Amino acid sequence: MSIAAAEPAAPARSIDPAHVFWILAAIVTAAIVMLPAEALPAWARKYPAAWQLPFAAWISSFTKWLMDSASFGLFTVRDLTRAISWLLDQPLSLARAVFATGFVRGQGSDAVTVFPAIPWFSMVIAATAAGYAVGGRRLALGMAAGLLYLAVFGQWTSAMVTLASVLVSSVLGSIGGLLIGLACVRWRWLERAAAPFLDIAQTMPVFAYLLPMLILFGFGPVSAMVATVIYALPPMVRVTILAIRAVPEEIEALGRMTGCTRRQITWKMLVPTALPALMVGVNQVIMLSLNVVIIASMIGAGGLGWDVLTALRSLNIGKGLEAGIAITVLAILLDRFAQALALRAGAVEAEDAARRRKAFVSSALAIAVAFWLLTALFPAIAPYPEAWKLSTAPYWGQFVSWINVTFFSTLEAIRTAVLLNILVPVKRFMLALPWPWVVFLVTAIGFRLGGWRLALTVGLMAAFPALVGLWPATMITVYLCGVAVVIAALIGVSIGIVAAGRPRLWRTVEIVIDTLQTLPTFVYLIPIVMLFRVGDFTALIAIVLYAVAPAIRYTAHGVSRIAPELIEAGVMTGCTRRQILTRIRLPLATPEILLGINQTILLALSMLVITALVGTRDLGQETYSALAKADVGRGVVAGIAVAFIGMIADRLVSAAAAGMKARRGPPQ
Amino acid sequence: MRTALSSLAIACACSILALTAPSGPARAAPESKDPIKITLNDWTGELISAHIVGEILKKAGYNVEYVPADYLAQFAGMGTGDLTFAPEVWATTAQEALDAAVATGNVEDLGGSGMQAREDWWYPEYMKEKCPGLPNWEALKKCGEAFSTPETAPKGRYLGGPVTWGGYDEERIQALDLPFEVVHAGTDAAMFAELKSAYERKAPIILWIYVPHWAPIKYKGEFVEFPKFEKACYEDPAWGSNKDAKYDCAKPRGDIFKAAWSGMKKKWPGAYEIVKAYKNDNKTIGELAAKVDIDGQKVEDVAAEWVNSNEAIWRPWVKQ
């Protein structure tokens, strides 16, 4: 299409038959939107209420049955989930005791501390030593600086509560994801069966299933942890499947020839070989776990998430930011530590260097433990002294106020321009599309890209929102996320191209995107509301900021993976830099870029929960309102509609990427 | 090593136990030593109410635990007994959630907390110059322009609460023929962020505000005086200045209820009586909230101080 637009004056050039479908689809769509409203029958413009299926009511009564009376004979479903909840509570309570609360006897205000939690100085010493042991001086320095930030800025207690729950849920998520992934590799049917659940878990807004979960697992940290694991586990499963499949055939063959059992092949050969790739999944689990810290705090997890929420409700922007950055600090420390650990697993070290390192680390750990014991005898020395605390909170508040007072009219002009020229027209267009045409178009695209099977799947998913009477909200969702994804993709792909192959720049970019992915959106949402008011534009900025990260990551990865010989060949044949970019780098990296955009779409959809908080009228608002009205069915139905949008996009983009790869032939 | 550690731990435990053994006046034995879980929502007034109730229960000998909980998610927690008591459930924002929870039979409505929510259209003081005649609502008829933004001009922009709060503002605008358009905020945090932004720039704004809240204490301004609410106004079109429309009046003042897990009555009868009897008023909570939000004191300290200096008020609630 871009060729046709760029060279309209070349009529001799016949249109590529492969493009006819797309051009035709665009023309017909435009024509339909321009038709006067009366030209279409009423049922096509607005899905008749009489045709709606009462899915919401069915789900409500099903969950009510499940939660109140479903039984296995000897015990009810609720007994079972409560038992699971008790089991999960054991590691969590232990971690909370060690890091945050100390070992106590009794509950509530009667609790008596039997043994204190690790005091901040022991933690700093131990973590620094551990950092040195696995990652050398650099990591040790990072650990010390990060933890000191938490202490100096008065975030220690909350940060340790959050650390305990994130640690446990990351471990559970990583191990669970690994096991499910391995099972999927062994049994193909399981992979097919699990795929839709993974998509739904990743895209369904947590608000949608919050109520049933609270009743089944109880109100408190365990529920929060279950929600966290549900949300953070899918990428680990996906990565495991990819990573294990990517292990060279020869390794498995070797295992079989030397007479290894199946278990030995899996755990002694496949998993260790795939470890570096698996760590990408662990990274995602950690990042996503920290991502739901805020929502987890709403249902009893407490910690930093709660601090952010409370600070921002009283519009204390600086305090919210400091607590938010503490979340990011935790994320980066955990991630870098896990990465270093994985790197080390394969490294070999000289014997005496190893011995020296071991001696150093164990003496540091001994000191940390000694200090810990000391706090048990003298509890007064444990807390970080009030007088040494710092806060930059007032300055941040003043900074935002200054921008507000000084630049508001400029920002207002930008906002109005984007709103009137992009957002409003796109919204009108999407709402003007008759639902039967959209369903047909999605089906046709599915057929074109992946055959009848894909067509059927995506067609049915596209029809679902109409069937349950959520069509307008769905179209608003598609419009908001669609515009955000286009903008995020443009920004992300350009940054990715520029940063790839420039290691120093890449390190900076990586810190920025890690921050964007883990800093709670709420932290920057409130200042954005102050500067841009509530509404779609504010939601758009928040979605773009959050969803841009994978586009950058995958693009950079794809571009830097291109074989250097190909670039060299380009240089030798006299390509300009621009030609190398447009003719070699971009086309070769396209499959990776598409995967990145795929992730961007999923992240954009997962932001809908947050955009509901700034007054959009989309499916996110629908799930949020359902929570307000304690209407389980309505929330779940809206959540499924969100998940279906994500799955349609995912299936179509993946099919397009696969088609492109197939056309280009096997990788060199 | 391990045995040494554990014996040390036990030694410590004993010494701490000895230190913290109750030494004050003898306390009545509570029915159950399980912690009574009081919810902490995310606004200051509620935090203060929760801590005041908690302190009183502690003085009566009960074991209390505070659990941070989302305002709407807390009803599910109370339904299963995971949470015990919510001190502030506003009729204006959570009536439906409360009704639904009470209908299940697992949550009990403990009646009013003595506080009254007032919510209505509110503007900062500096807008009085731009729209003479305020706070009388009829002044708004000529002030659409003064409150307008590019998207709503020439109509004024009224920032309403989240859609879920209801409030009939669209209907009110129609009925009273006001030149305004409603824009809904998604949360009250977003709503007050807009107020802060406008207040700093002395820019026009008119929005939904509810009290008791810290915002009208921190920012100077007034409620618009609409015709006083009567039940007939919401039910009978003939009532009020517009003979053909309902909602041509102010919003109703709503009670702020207390709610509890219905098993509380059995498990802690004494504590149940205390929380049922607990009452407070807007002025007290508003002033305490100001101490926290404006003077920067800690919620726990403010609540404890109130409990210590007002024993005459709460002592009768505690059955001996």
From TrEMBL, chain B:
Alphabetized UniProt keyword annotations: Signal
Domain of life: Bacteria
Pfam family, one: OpuAC
Keyword Signal part of the UniProt annotation: yes
Residues of the ABC-type glycine betaine transport system substrate-binding domain: 34-308
InterPro entries: ABC_Gly_betaine_transp_sub-bd (IPR007210)
Signal peptide (residue range): 1-28
Regions crossing the membrane: none
Annotated protein name in UniProt: ABC transporter substrate-binding protein
The organism of origin for this protein: Chelatococcus sambhunathii
